[in-house]
Amino acid sequence: MSGSTLALLKSLEGKGAISGQFTEIRGMAQIASGGAIATIESLAGKWPGMIGGDYWWFGSTQATADLTFNALAIAYAAAGGLVTLSLSMPNPTTAKFSGDATALDSAGLLAAGTATHQALLVMLDSIAAGLAQLQAAGVTVLLRPFHELNGTWFWWSLLPPAQFVSLWQFVRDYLTKSKGLTNLLWVWSVNAGFVSYPPQSRYPGDAYVDVTGIDVYSSNPADAAGDVATLVALGHPVMLSEFGSGSAAAADPTFEETTLIAALKGPLSKIVAWQQWWSPWGMETAAAVKPALADPWVLNRGDLASGAAVAAPTSASSTILTTASGGSVTDATNNVWTLTAAGIVERDGVAVAGGAGTGALAVIDGVVYAQDATSEVWFSNIGGVWAAVAAFPGQTAPPNTTPPTTPTPGSAPPVVTPPTVTHLTLAALVDQAAALLEQVRQGLAMLLP
């Protein structure tokens, strides 16, 4: 699930950037008339390629995650968009908001039996429950915990570098190994201004990071080029994990969105996506948002849904699996994909949602493609979402891998039983959250023509 999204991001380095808008915890209201995301679409004629949210509003002191964002995330991903999630967890020692950097039991944070550790586990368990809902719906999440980790204004800033690294590694292991979540890409997100706030000593290691991010508040985003180059050197895709004009204290009311695009096409060309911060910095209030999102460098939700964001492969796969061939193919992040004799796509031995009824399977330039056994249409899997493609990569037309219906001379006629094609629907979530399903249904009605 997450491997396809990571392959997509890698394919965009130096070629384009995905547009994105943060919504905090405001949920489905953001795509209703008057909401920020709907306003952007009204102004630009395009939906942002990515939406961002949080499980806590800034200032929240509640002990568990608010999952309001999930309904919007599921609806948006189903329409082809990407999803990123911040975690503004309250201070587990003082029970005050995330920006309380007055006190922290750093020694007890990861020590079993302490009140601080127990408060951390309560938050993590509630986060895991929310992420499990998204996983069940096939949503890949660019997860951004402990953002602006090199600053001084959040409680995690109080940790010495070695303890911060231990915290990051503990949280990743807890959510992925203990909770079994496989739909996450981990975004190590820092604040711009490395001279004043060097982040390198807080890097948890390549095995614990999938994407790096930088938060930039400036009307001259190109000024962050030096910091971005430092992140590029780490070898992961880089995103603008927060962007706002002016400063973090006040937005620039004269800022034109095309200024950001010019920087992304120039000194910041390695940036693969950006997340504009919410009002008053949001795209819904910025000038020149329509030409900005219309720029060919920018990938919006429609581009992702159509598969247009996939870099053109240079050659066809050397292996096309069929239900009779056996074998396996490996994607860009070393996930092993197989196709069973029953026509079910599996990733690392686990059935992939929406992958039943498949007749053929291949991986091209790290991206997974599957052919529906009945319609013979090929689909790419981008961000956990299957999308039809016009032609199989490397060829002018998709290959026909359907077994011939004419029997070979001297043999018995083959028995061909059309497999049942199943598709991932939100109905699978009814037994978990009927109310959530209804919200998603309403959101899809607004998002899709």
Q: How would you spell out the order of helices and strands?
A: HEEHEHEHEHEEHEHEHEHEEEEEEEEEH
Strand portion: 15-25%
What are the segments in which pLDDT stays under 50 over at least 5 consecutive residues? 310-318, 391-399, 401-433
CATH superfamily of the largest domain, by name, is: Glycosidases
Q: Write down the CATH topology of the largest domain.
A: TIM Barrel
Which secondary structure elements does this structure contain, and how are they paired or packed?
Elements: H1 2-11, E1 17-18, E2 20-22, H2 36-44, E3 50-54, H3 69-78, E4 82-87, H4 115-136, E5 141-145, H5 161-178, E6 184-191, E7 211-217, H6 225-232, E8 238-244, H7 257-265, E9 271-276, H8 289-294, E10 298-299, H9 301-306, E11 321-322, E12 329-330, E13 336-339, E14 345-347, E15 350-351, E16 358-364, E17 367-372, E18 378-382, E19 385-388, H10 434-447
Parallel strand pairs: 1-10, 2-3, 3-4, 4-5, 5-6, 6-7, 7-8, 8-9
Antiparallel strand pairs: 11-16, 12-13, 13-14, 14-15, 16-17, 17-18, 18-19
Helix pairs in contact: 3-10
